[in-house]
Inverse folding.
């Protein structure tokens, strides 16, 4: 009898462990965050679906915005419908299902953005939609709202239980102690997995309710992947992972902060340091990343989803944001060479598709997983070198403003790839054996270089450069220029991202065209264009150079002679443009004194 009970107990432990995997051990996949804030165009289901072939060459998971209808244009964090209305700001339900099915066919799992800490009301403070699914009607009531929600202080009837986590006054805080809330959430999660076809969840704002409920919901729905947004100190994140019964991974916020610290402070040694300390119960803990071997407790790298930027930290109008100000390419190079499960931000992917694809290809070629071991090889203010051991080989990444200045010791190291402020070396595998995917989507083909627009002109003696920017680069382009014999700072002494360029007009392919005029006494040696969280690499400055997106220098514009114009007898069919490329009339028109472009030539009207 004792043997039988012991065997049954062992079986139960194994069964629970199988259910509570959280994030697969030794997982080698990489995730893409398929949206940024207000990405209503780039994250359309139809647009993401069109990229499935390219995405499948690189990514294993794509995390998309919350996909239910929220009552109007929304990024999904004021969720309203859980079962019956999936015509959202990103497309219709049919388009959503088609995208998820296409991703699955290509080997990509889709991660749902699950918002269950709070919920929006239909028309008043405490009413929620009634939704019938599979013959069962699901509806939350006022009794499912936490007793300390602001609805109570505004005179509305609410439930009896206090919030089990941090409160939030944006919408109604849901009481996860309520059996009705639990019933609704469990059905909702199963609907996402079994009906819509999602493969896992990203839980929003998990500090808003006790971690035990994430454990409850995951053990009931059994997602293949689960990651929580526990935006806090490393010790708090670790405690949440434990409270969730290790049924979920968590975003490694402290990894992100160490990368930000290193880049924004121009000190790459900070990659190996903590992000300050955190005190709990009179015990001080270092804020090392979850993947860190220096973490005070057992390694949590299996449950760490690393990232360097997301929709909450990227540069936005809100001054509280603290974005990585430059070197986003080097930041990704470091992340993709380290353990944990990397999550690439959509704007970074859009800016550096081929280079990020190459990094991920090297990562997978050497077999780096979420539990791989790593060793620091060199630490300097100008560079940081780390070796990570995979299942097939080793990868040595060097990042920093002088990454090219570090050469690893030992003949076994061979350079695989390199770029702006990063180098990848490999050992135990032949870098020549690595086959890199060619990444070029349909959306990029529509914006190919179409030649120098006629409105790009240069005055005699003027020193300047032009830049053609994809629309995704935002509404303002900046220029950072410097001298070879300097310290890498902008030669005009400005802070990153430098000075504003002037928009001239729109190219035939829809891209915006910008001009920057040299105001210093001498020409700079190097130049970077940036905007919308994206940037070019380090490029040589060419006077009159016409630079195209990530492709670099495309052409050189020469100074155009200015001639005086006699309006008498000019043909009427010649349109007249100002220097910004706007048509202002014809040669028969009465023009104010100024400089104009007529038939691709510059004229002065006095």
């Amino acid at each position: 009898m004792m043997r039988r009970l012991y065997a049954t107990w062992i079986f139960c432990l194994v069964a629970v462990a199988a259910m509570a995997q959280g994030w697969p051990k030794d997982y080698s996949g990489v995730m893409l965050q398929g949206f940024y804030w207000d990405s209503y165009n780039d994250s359309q289901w139809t647009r993401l679906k069109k990229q499935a072939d390219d995405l499948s060459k690189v990514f294993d998971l794509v995390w998309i915005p919350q996909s239910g209808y929220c009552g109007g244009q929304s990024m999904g964090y004021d969720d309203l419908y859980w079962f019956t209305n999936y015509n959202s700001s990103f497309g219709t339900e049919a388009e959503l299902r088609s995208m998820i099915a296409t991703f699955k066919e290509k080997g990509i799992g889709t991660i749902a953005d699950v918002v269950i800490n709070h919920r929006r009301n239909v028309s008043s403070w405490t009413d929620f939609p009634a939704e019938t699914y599979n013959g069962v009607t699901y509806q939350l009531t006022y009794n499912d709202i936490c007793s300390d929600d602001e609805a109570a202080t505004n005179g509305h009837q609410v439930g009896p239980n206090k919030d089990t986590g941090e409160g939030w006054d944006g919408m109604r805080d849901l009481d996860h102690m309520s059996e009705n809330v639990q019933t609704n959430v469990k059905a909702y999660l199963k609907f996402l997995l079994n009906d819509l076809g999602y493969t896992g969840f990203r839980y929003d704002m998990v500090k808003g309710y006790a971690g035990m409920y994430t454990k409850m919901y995951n053990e009931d729905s059994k997602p293949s992947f689960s990651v929580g947004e526990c935006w806090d100190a490393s010790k708090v994140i670790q405690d949440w992972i434990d409270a969730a019964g290790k049924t979920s991974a968590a975003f490694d916020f402290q990894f992100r902060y160490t990368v930000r610290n290193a880049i924004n402070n121009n000190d790459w040694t900070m990659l190996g340091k903590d992000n300050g300390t955190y005190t709990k119960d009179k015990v001080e803990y270092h804020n090392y990343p979850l993947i860190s071997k220096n973490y005070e407790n057992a390694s949590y790298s299996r449950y760490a989803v690393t990232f360097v930027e997301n929709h909450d930290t990227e540069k936005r109008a809100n001054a509280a944001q603290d974005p990585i100000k430059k070197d986003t390419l080097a930041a990704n190079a470091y992340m993709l060479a380290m353990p944990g499960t990397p999550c690439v931000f959509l704007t970074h992917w859009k800016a550096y598709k081929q280079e990020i694809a190459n990094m991920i290809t090297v990562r997978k070629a050497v077999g780096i997983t979420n539990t791989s071991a790593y060793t620091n090889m060199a630490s300097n203010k100008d560079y940081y070198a780390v070796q990570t051991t995979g299942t097939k080989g080793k990868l040595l990444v060097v990042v920093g403003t002088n990454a090219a200045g570090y050469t690893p010791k030992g003949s076994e190291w061979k350079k695989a790839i390199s770029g702006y402020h990063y180098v990848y070396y490999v050992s135990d595998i032949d870098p020549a054996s690595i086959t890199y995917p060619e990444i070029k989507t349909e959306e990029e083909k529509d914006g190919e270089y179409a030649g120098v627009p006629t409105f790009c002109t240069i005055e005699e003696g003027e020193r300047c450069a032009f830049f053609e920017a994809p629309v995704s680069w935002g509404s303002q382009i900046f220029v950072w220029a410097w001298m070879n014999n300097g310290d890498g700072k902008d030669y005009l002494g400005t802070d990153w991202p430098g000075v504003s360029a002037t928009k001239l007009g729109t190219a035939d392919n829809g891209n915006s065209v910008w001009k920057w005029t040299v105001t210093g006494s001498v020409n700079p040696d190097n130049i970077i264009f940036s905007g919308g969280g994206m940037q070019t690499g380090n490029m040589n400055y060419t006077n009159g150079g016409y630079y195209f997106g990530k492709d670099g220098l495309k052409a050189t514009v020469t100074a155009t002679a200015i001639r005086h114009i006699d309006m008498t007898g000019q043909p009427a069919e010649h349109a007249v443009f100002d220097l910004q490329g706007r048509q202002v009339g014809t040669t028969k028109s009465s023009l104010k004194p100024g400089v104009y472009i007529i038939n691709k030539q510059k004229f002065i009207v006095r």
Summary: The first helix runs from residue 2 to 19. Residues 66 and 113 are 5 Å apart (CA to CA). Residues 1-20, 442-446, 561-565, 567-571 have pLDDT under 50 and may be disordered. The chain has four domains: 27-117+175-371, 383-433, 446-556, 562-605.
